[in-house]
């Protein structure tokens, strides 16, 4: 009987050792867990866009260039009159019409006079002469010439509403899986202390 008791104790001891070893051997299992996943979405929004459009317009530009010698006068006091003289030279590369508008003040009265038009070829000179009554007091003049229409363009600022997109960062909960390697005893202790 003693042998039986020893055999039982040996079997029981071996069993306890095997059980202790078995519960301490780690093994791997899959475990589900919840995690936050971040992602980017494009969100539409309305914004104002500034832009420029070309707008055409017509401008009258002089056909030619010219030079003037300035004015000078010849005084005829005996006949109570004077002559104003202005020389113009067409320095452009095409022919064109030229004329002068005078504003003159004399001892008799004031005058606003426009001369006849004269066609000048390139590099041609012409002297305008205008006679006025009285003695000279003051003059001003302006030279005119033929013009041509030129189409020019200017940038006109404009605005328009457009739909644009911007990135928005968002998050969502997802269920993931991970492998856990724990022994049986570690699993029991983990379940008691979450």
Number of helices: 2
How much of the residues is beta strand, in percent?
A: over 45%
Calculate the mean pLDDT score and round it. Answer: 84
From the spread of the alpha carbons, the general shape counts as: rod-shaped
Q: What helical percentage do the residues reach?
A: 10-25%
The biggest beta sheet reads: 4 strands, antiparallel
How many discrete structural domains?
2
Order of secondary-structure elements:
HEEEEEEEEEH
Q: C-alpha Rg, in Å?
A: 54 Å
Keywords: Membrane, Transmembrane, Transmembrane helix
Transmembrane segments: 7-27
What does this molecule look like?
This protein has 2 domains: about 90 residues, no CATH class; about 80 residues, Immunoglobulin-like (Sandwich), CATH 2.60.40. About 15% of the residues lie in helices and about 70% in strands. The protein contains 2 helices and 9 strands; from the N terminus they run αβββββββββα. With about 190 residues, it is α+β, with helices and mostly antiparallel strands. Strand 2 and strand 3 form a beta hairpin. The two termini are about 50 Å apart. The longest helix is centred in the first third of the chain and has 23 residues. Strands 4, 5, 6 and 8 form a 4-stranded antiparallel sheet that branches. The protein has a 3-stranded antiparallel sheet with strand order 2-3-7, with no helix packed on it. A two-stranded antiparallel ribbon has the order 1-9.
């Amino acid at each position: 009987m003693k042998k039986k008791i020893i055999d039982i104790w040996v079997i029981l001891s071996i069993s306890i050792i095997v059980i202790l070893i078995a519960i301490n051997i780690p093994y791997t299992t899959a475990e589900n867990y919840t995690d936050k996943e971040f992602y980017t979405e494009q969100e539409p929004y309305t914004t104002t866009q500034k832009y420029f459009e070309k707008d055409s317009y017509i401008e009258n530009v002089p056909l030619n260039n010219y030079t003037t010698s300035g004015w000078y006068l010849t005084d005829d006091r005996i006949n109570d009159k004077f002559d104003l003289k202005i020389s113009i030279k067409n320095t452009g590369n095409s022919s064109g019409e030229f004329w002068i508008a005078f504003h003159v003040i004399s001892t008799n009265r004031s005058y606003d006079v426009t001369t006849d038009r004269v066609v000048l070829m390139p590099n041609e000179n012409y002297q305008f002469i205008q006679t006025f009554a009285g003695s000279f007091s003051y003059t001003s003049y302006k030279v005119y010439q033929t013009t041509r229409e030129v189409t020019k363009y200017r940038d006109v600022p404009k605005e328009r509403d457009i739909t644009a997109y911007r990135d928005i960062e968002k998050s969502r909960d997802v269920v993931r899986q991970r492998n856990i390697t724990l022994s049986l005893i570690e699993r029991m202790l983990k379940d008691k202390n979450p």
